Amino acid sequence: MSTRQQVVLRPLRRWVIVLCAILVVVLTAAVLVWLLHEAGDDPGRRMEAIKTGFTVGLAGGGSIVLFLAVRRQWHQEVVAVVTTRDADERRLTDLYVKATEHLGSPLAQVRVAGLYALERLAQENPHQRQVVADVISAYLRMPWDRSGPDLETQQELHVRRAAGKILTTHLRAEPEFWQITLDLTGATLVDFNARQCVFSGGLNCPSATFIGIARFTDARFQGEARFAEADFQGTVRFTGATFDGDVLFAGARSSGPWWFTGAKLTNHKAVLEIPGFHVAPDGTIRPDAPAR
């Protein structure tokens, strides 16, 4: 039984039991009358008929008792399952609340612990993986003032690097792939390493800021790749990446080189918007020829 399945317990109406008892009595009486009629005036046969009739009645009553016993056992098992499910849901909620509370801590190590607590929760509860991914993405989208003290800045860089690593780790076949979509609109990502990741729902990163090297080597985008107005503050590597949908980099900026060597657009109807690049007839993404 699924932990998310709703179980409805309906009480057995009393009139059903009364009706069954009446049917047993009527059946017993009918059998007894028929057997006595067949037995005639022979005392021995009439005694056997009476025994047989009452045996039929006892069998019918026993069937009702057996049915009620089986139903009661089933009821107890269902109650046990529902109770266990409710306890698991409460435990899950408590873990989720505590982990998200850690993300608001002023201490970087506590925030990191909250991130890994969320990851463990998602690993043990697959139906919560999208929720956990949304929470981590929301943390990365939160405004961050990098003009603060150097120590706090370095600690927050570490936290955001850990958050990005958790997301990308589970977008690969190993150790375990999460079927999730990411919305990183306006997020600040640190050393985002999405090498060999599969973005089954595409990736939304418009206006995102990438600090350090942004690695998307051999990644696959099965939906739209949205990087419009993104700010890449380092090298951008999309070497060998595969795009199945639109590739939108309009207005994106980079302080380092763009690498799209071996990248390919599989959908000939998709839109490619990468400054300085175009799609070759074979679908590969190539840099524009220098102006003469």
Reading side by side through the largest sheet, how are the strands ordered?
Answer: 1-4-8-12-16
Low-pLDDT windows of residues: none
Structural class: alpha/beta
Percent helix range? 40-55%
Number of domains: 2
Secondary structure tally: strands: 18
Q: Could you state the order of secondary-structure elements as H and E?
A: HHHHHEEEEEEEEEEEEEEEEEE
Count of alpha and pi helical runs: 5
State the distance separating the first and last CA atoms.
Answer: 69 Å
Largest sheet: 5 strands, parallel
Q: What fraction strand?
A: 5-15%
Mean pLDDT: 84
InterPro entries: 5peptide_repeat
Pfam families: Pentapeptide_3
Protein name: Pentapeptide repeat protein
Organism: Kutzneria kofuensis
Written account of the structure:
Keywords: Membrane, Transmembrane, Transmembrane helix. Pfam families: Pentapeptide_3. This is Pentapeptide repeat protein. This protein has 292 residues and is an alpha/beta fold. The protein has helices spanning 14-39, 43-103, 108-124, 129-141, 150-169, and strands at residues 182-183, 188-190, 198-199, 203-204, 209-211, 214-215, 220-221, 225-226, 231-233, 236-237, 242-243, 247-248, 253-254, 258-259, 264-265, 272-273, 277-279, 285-287. The protein has two domains: 14-87; 104-287. 47% of the residues lie in helices and 14% in strands. The strands form five sheets. Strands 1-4-8-12-16 form a five-stranded parallel sheet. A four-stranded parallel sheet has the order 2-5-9-13. Strand 17 and strand 18 form a beta hairpin. The longest helix is centred in the N-terminal third of the chain and has 61 residues, at 43-103.
